[in-house]
Amino acid sequence: MDFGELMLRTYELMRDQPALRQHYQQRFRHILVDEFQDTNKLQYLWLKMFAGHDTGHPSAVLAVGDDDQSIYAFRGAQVGNMADFEREFRVRHLIKLERNYRSFGNILDAANALISHNSRRLGKELRT
Q1: Cα 104 from chain centre
Q2: Of 1, 111, 119, nearest in space to 12 by CA
Q3: Which CATH superfamily includes the segment(s) 3-95?
Q4: Across-strand partners of 60?
Q5: Of 1, 38, 107, 118, which is least packed with CB atoms within 10 Å of its CB?
Q6: Is 122 within 8 Å of 87 (Cβ atoms)?
């Protein structure tokens, strides 16, 4: 089995075994997802089920990602998962990391001009 099939079989097991699903939904009350922009549809469905999204008592989920850095579409990553997450999990506190400590203003101006053409970005303005 590769990683994708492990994810699929875990999803199917949790979907088909309510007692097991409930056990893990209650066990993990906080979930952190890093590099969320690189998740695919199955990973997003897995997260929703694991977090108990539809139970009325969901886990607290913190997702960290940058919609302008999604580079794994060739692997099935869907940057749109970030907008779906914001809407479906009813995100109340969205924190945009716009301050950049590594680059000068002229570099960030060029970066902002380039990323402004991304069609499905959530929007931010990089600054020094």
Answers
A1: 29
A2: 1
A3: P-loop containing nucleotide triphosphate hydrolases (3.40.50.300)
A4: 30
A5: 1
A6: no
Tokens linked to 72:
């794994």
Residue 21 φ/ψ, nearest 5 degrees: -60, -45
Contacts of 37 (CB under 8 A, 6+ apart): 65, 66, 67, 69, 70, 77, 79, 81, 82
Q: What is the dihedral of CA 96, 102, 106, 112, to 10 degrees?
A: -30
pLDDT tens digits along 45-71 = 999 999 998 787 788 999 999 887 878
Check residues 81 and 70 and name the one with the higher pLDDT: 81
Q: Where are the domains of the chain?
A: 3-95, 96-128
